[in-house]
Amino acid sequence: MSAREVTAICPGSCGELIQGIIGGRELLVSYPIDRYSEITVRSGDSNKTYRASCRKILHTAKAVVEYLDIPVNKLGTFEIIRRSSLPLGKGMSSSTADIGATAAAVASFFGYELTSDEIAAMAASIEPTDGILYEDLMLFDAVNGEAVEVIGPVPSLKVLVLEGVGLVDTICFHKKRSYVPIIDAAYDALRSGVSTGDWAVMGNAAIMSARLYQSVLPKPYLDDIIDIALRTGAYGVNVAHTGTALGIIMNEDTDECALVEVLRTRGILEFYGRHYVVRMVKGGPRLTS
After folding, report:
1. How far is CA 6 from the centre of its chain?
2. pLDDT tens digits, residue range 46-86?
3. Is 264 helix (H, G, I), strand (E, B) or coil?
4. 212: closest CA among 30, 13, 21?
C-alpha cells in the first residue's frame, strides 16, 4: 500500500447553466464552484474492510476497489472521513462531489490514479451525475456518465447563490418527471458566449434554459429575480434543474449587497433560505495530501 492517508477534494456546483433535450438527447452543462466535498481515506482499526458513514461513499469505495481489481490480501482495513461545505438536496452536486473525491482518494490510497471519464462512468452507475468531474465546462450526459463535448474553460465569475427551500431527491425526480424541454437554442447561445468570452450571452443562455424548465420544477419569482439581476448589471440567472438552488451570475462590478437588499425588500429572499457568494472554478477531483 503506497499511502496510509490520502485526502481529495471535488467541487460542487450551483446547478446547471443549461439542461434539457439537445440534438434529441437529454444533456446538461454544470459549472463548478469554490465549495467542496473533502474525503480522507486512512488506515483503520475496524475489523471491517471499509468504514464510512454515507452509503454512496461506501458504494463508491467498493466500486473503485472492484474496478482496480485490488487483491483481497492487499486491502487491509481503511476508513473514510467526509467533510463538505455543500448542502444536500439543493441541486448543488453534493453527491457527485462526494463520489468524485472518494474515487480519487481511494484510488490514490492504493497507488492508482483514475481519469475523469472513469470516475464519471462509476458515478453514473450509482446515480445521475454531472460534468463537475471535469476541469472545463462540459456538455454531459448525466444518466450515462458520458462527456459529449468540451464547451470551454470555466470563467472565474462571481455567483450569488440562493439555496432554495426544501429538498429534492435527484433519483426520484428523474423517475417521476414526464417532460423535458428542448433547449437547442440555449445550447447554441451558450457555446457562442463561452467561445467569445461574452458572459452576457452565456447568462442569457442560462436564462433561456431556466425559463423553459419552469414547467418542470418551478423556482419562486424567477422572472422577478431575472429582472432584478439584469437591472443591477448581472450577466444572467441559472437554476438547479433538479434542485431548489438558483444562481445570479455577476460581473466583478456587480454590487451583491445592493442586489441582496432589493431581493429582500421585494420579499423574495424568504422563499430561498440561505444566500451567499461563490466563484466559478476549475472542476474535477484533486488530491490535497
Report:
1. 23
2. 555 556 658 889 899 999 999 999 887 777 778 899 999 99
3. helix
4. 21
Task: Give Cα separations from 104 to 10, 13, 82 (angstroms).
Answer: 9, 18, 13
Query: Do residues 120 and 96 touch, judged by C-beta distance below 8 A?
Result: no
C-alpha cell at 206: 442560462
Asked if pLDDT for residue 173 goes beyond 70, the answer is no
pTM comes to 0.92
CATH number of this structure's domain 5-150, picked from the four choices 3.90.550.10, 3.90.1150.10, 3.30.230.10, 3.40.50.1780? 3.30.230.10
State the DSSP code for 107: H
Assess contact for 238 and 246: CB atoms under 8 A.
yes
- Helices 199-212, 222-231: crossing angle, 10 deg rounding: 170
What is the bridge-based pairing of β-strands 236-239 and 137-141? unpaired
pLDDT tens column, 86-103? 999 899 999 999 999 999
Q: How many CB atoms lie within 10 A of CB 281?
A: 18
Question: Exposed, middle or buried by CB within 10 Å (0-12, 13-18, 19+), for 258?
Answer: exposed
